[in-house]
Amino acid sequence: MKQRRSYSKKRVKRKSKRSLQVFGAIVLVMALCAPSALAQKSPKDKFEFPPLNPIKMPKIETLELENGLKVFLVEDHDFPTIDIRAVVRIGSVYEPAEKTGLAAMTGTVLRSGGTASKTGDDIDRELESFAATIETYIGQSSGGFVSSMLKEDVDRVLAILTDILVNPAFHEDKIELAKIQQRSGISRRNDEVGGITRREFWKLMYGTTSPYARHPEYATIDAVTRDDIVRFYKRGFFPNNTIMTVWGDFAMDEMVKKLKNTLGTWPKGTSDIPSPPTVKYEYKYRVNLVNKPDVNQSNISLGHIGGLMNNPDYPALSVMNNILSWERMFKKIRTDEGLAYSVWGTYGASYRHPGVFSCAAQTKSESTVYAIELMLEEVRRMTKEEVSDDELARAKDRYLNTYVFNFDSKSKIVNRLMTYVFNDYPMDFMETIKTGVEKVTKADVLRVAKKYLRPDKVQILVVGNKEAFDKPLSSLGEVNVIDITIPPAKSKQ
Amino acid sequence: MRKRFVLMNRACVVCALVLVLNVSSTAQTFDTIKSQVKVHVLENGMKFIVLERHEAPVVSFHVYADVGSANESYGITGISHLLEHMAFKGTKLVGTTDYKEEIKVLEELDVLYDKIKTEQAKVSPDEETLKEMGKEFEALRTKAKEFVVNGEFDDMFMREGDRSLNASTSADATQYVNSLPSNKLEFWMAMTADRFQNPVFREFYKERDVVIEERRLSVETRPIGRLVEDFLSTAFKAHPYKHSVVGHMSDLESITRKDVEVYFHKYYSPSNLTVSIVGDVHSTEVFEMAEMYFGNIPSEPKPEPLRTKEPEQWGERRVQVVTNSQPILIMGYHRPDVRHADSFALDALANIMGQGRSSRLHQSLVKDKKVCIQVGVFSGFPGEKYPNLVAFVAVPSQGHTSEECRELIDEEIAKIKEESVTAEELTKYQRSSVKAMLSQMKSNGNMAKLLTYADVVVGDWQRLFDQVEEIQAVSVEDVKRVANTYLVKNHRTIGEIVPEGK
């Protein structure tokens, strides 16, 4: 290898031969001044890392307008843009089952359906003419809006945003368009194996009719009227039911004034939104199949109900997840066995309703049952024996050494704060988890694995071609065959 | 590369931006960032681009290897991507308990694998011999595994706090990303220098199986995956953009470890690697370390440029994928590479026709006629380094067909060919492009990616910032001209998913 222009030790030695006294002295001085800059290290050498520069916490302004709109603001002058994000306490879990799809459609048409003075198409053109965006949505457990703009357009964007929130028109034509989109989505929902697996596994976890798993059908979309949409919007979209963040290139006082003059005019409402629906789960071992003769790879999900993030065991569960997914599932099923590209095992937790414990892999039809057995074996092993010292140390290092990335942008910091406040979590929740993770022991990991993982009471779902499996799926137990035929629309019968 | 605006000075950049955005804040932002970028090229040709950002104590790394599936030939399709996977398997030092012993077993495996392939290729292979060799192969593989420290390369990066350890392969490039707390710069240097100087492609056959599963996942079991693969192989008849990045199944089942080694030595010479580093580091320190860690890699000539060029298309081509799925339409017209003078006008055309809620196709097909639920136009498919395609994609609404969508797209194309676009539409393109650039530049990782892309594919990292002039320079006449030049029926390919039984 060539040593040209290298700072390696060899180079210094060679030089010093020429004039030992002079160069020897210089080398000594250099070594004293900057000892680490002189020697090329190999990856396994010991690294003396310099201290990490401190995290700069941004100044977050908290504001509550007279109409009850809570706002967190952060100045960020790196780029000449401004962003807004808001969460609204509403969600599809609050829509009537016979009108499933109402929430999503309301979220869409709030934006697309125009306002008292402008059509949705006008708004599209206007916003795009100055490269701004405003989007509204309603998801499962929350709704909201997001907006992004160049800073010089903030006045007109705030005016349009306020108009949308205060005077939405819900034009019939755009309701029809939203219904077409929904119906087309239904007609396409069995096209992709991944989509089928997610949807059916969710139903196995929460129950077919659960607000956390149900999905629209032609009949539930047809049942939605404009009145339903207007009522559902009114139920959630008002300022004292909303928390908002604003970050970007603005001066605080000016922005506060602007918000008061625009979103400050949004009329207050009265909330009747109850706590999120509870989940009734019965632990039960069952093998489920969606037979799909036209694929050569099985999509496998197995698991049972999970928990909440405010569970005091959550730090230990996070460490356990890290070990189960990476040290066990990935290293065994992907690296050692070459059975799958994507594989994981995670005890999922959500803010306000139980998450799902799920293990998943996609493997060729001919290794379906083998892969399931291996996955279950890894889960069982978690519940039976302690993890190794190395596994624990690596898992904790991974968590603690990436922790700084939670603070690598002002928008991340302020939006996390909004999420915690929205879900009634303490503002220092993440610090609490970190402290918890630092203390987790091998015994803790085993304890939570035993307590929360029930490998013998899992629902196993396979979407694949049963004729090509390595062994009949029934070798794992009685098979419940799931029919995914899409119920036809009434008008078309 | 375009010469038109090369002589423009900094002041003009500001003028141009003032016209587009009516403010100079964006121009100042680009100018400021541009002035902070520092570049250092080692004597062996390896290039380091550094942007200091001291907002947070983190740093992102992007290694751009100028090799992608377009560099592959028959028999080894998918090898760029497979190599990307193998670049996580460690080195002579990382991922092994005893490299010297391990390599002997790996080489025995290679020899045996070749024997098995030779036997299989015979007119009447001897089943007994194959069975014996199969057993021996498994035994050797078990023996090789004893030397492996499973996942050590990943573990070392992740333990130090790598938040984005990953890589991706496209038709044009193989890109490796890391992000670390910024005090671990030297650790990245040591790991990466070792990674690209002393790689060991261990656990090769199992990783090949993983990639085969990835092919099943992304192409074979996905209707859209099948469509894209067949569409590209129809649209291109000679240029390697015709085969998918993941490669053909039979090639994946046959590529050897030696093939990967040969490919690595051809395409991973220092002059073929460009690194960008964005975050809380000091460029002088980065360059000193780069000299120390990468400066002693011997230089090698850049690989020979691709010979094959896509010839002119002689008539419209069509391809159907018949499968258990609702219909999807893709339509592609040949266009020149990204460095061509028409590139920005083509971007404008794609943007005005098919990007955003107020784009012409969305207005007509989705909002007015309601024949599809999604429609979009993408310029630069499947890569940008070589002549490629302007692609139109439509997802028909329930009860509507690809053909209805195609007819309406044709109508909109005809209008632009006849009347061009409006000045307002052009302004929309210009503003949205600049805004999109600003948004992407916010994160260290994306910024690093933009810098290497501009430098390798467009030809100079400075063009990332200077392209604003060219975006501004596109005229309505340009858009009309490129529509007439490139959106030609004989130069297009139509691909569609046809629902089974219809």
Secondary structure blueprint with pairings:
The complex is a heterodimer of chains A (493) and B (502).
Chain A: H1 9-18, H2 20-33, E1 61-64, E2 70-75, E3 81-88, H3 102-112, H4 120-129, E4 133-138, E5 143-150, H5 154-166, H6 172-187, H7 193-206, H8 218-222, H9 226-236, E6 242-248, H10 252-261, E7 286-291, E8 297-305, E9 307-308, H11 314-336, E10 343-347, E11 349-350, E12 356-364, H12 368-384, H13 389-401, H14 410-422, H15 429-439, H16 442-452, E13 459-464, E14 479-481
Parallel strand pairs in A: 2-6, 7-13, 7-14, 9-11
Antiparallel strand pairs in A: 1-2, 3-5, 3-6, 4-5, 8-12, 8-13, 10-12
Chain B: H1 10-21, H2 25-36, E1 37-41, E2 47-52, E3 58-65, H3 79-86, H4 99-121, H5 127-145, H6 152-159, E4 166-169, E5 174-181, H7 185-197, H8 204-220, H9 223-235, H10 249-252, H11 257-267, E6 273-279, H12 283-294, E7 317-323, E8 328-335, H13 343-354, H14 360-368, E9 372-381, E10 388-396, H15 402-419, H16 423-441, H17 444-458, H18 463-473, H19 476-486, E11 492-499
Parallel strand pairs in B: 2-6, 7-11
Antiparallel strand pairs in B: 1-2, 3-5, 3-6, 4-5, 8-10, 8-11, 9-10
Walk me through this protein's architecture:
The complex is a heterodimer of chains A (493) and B (502). With 493 residues, chain A is of the alpha/beta class. Chain A folds into 2 domains: 205 residues, Metalloenzyme, LuxS/M16 peptidase-like (Cytochrome Bc1 Complex, Chain A, domain 1); 202 residues, Cytochrome Bc1 Complex, Chain A, domain 1, CATH 3.30.830.10. Chain A contains 16 helices and 14 strands. In chain A, strands 1-2-6-3-5-4 form a 6-stranded mixed beta sheet, with helices on both faces. The longest helix of chain A has 23 residues. Chain A starts with 8 loop residues before the first helix and ends in a 12-residue tail after the last strand. The N terminus of chain A is likely disordered. Chain B has 502 residues and is an alpha+beta fold. Chain B has 3 domains: 180 residues, Cytochrome Bc1 Complex, Chain A, domain 1 (2-Layer Sandwich); 51 residues; 183 residues, Cytochrome Bc1 Complex, Chain A, domain 1 (2-Layer Sandwich). Chain B is built from 19 helices and 11 strands. In chain B, the strands form 2 sheets. A 6-stranded mixed beta sheet of chain B has the order 1-2-6-3-5-4, with helices on both faces. A 5-stranded mixed beta sheet of chain B has the order 7-11-8-10-9, with helices on both faces. The N terminus of chain B is likely disordered. Chains A and B meet through helix 4, helix 6, helix 11, strand 12 and helix 13 of A and helix 2, helix 6, helix 7, helix 8 and helix 12 of B.
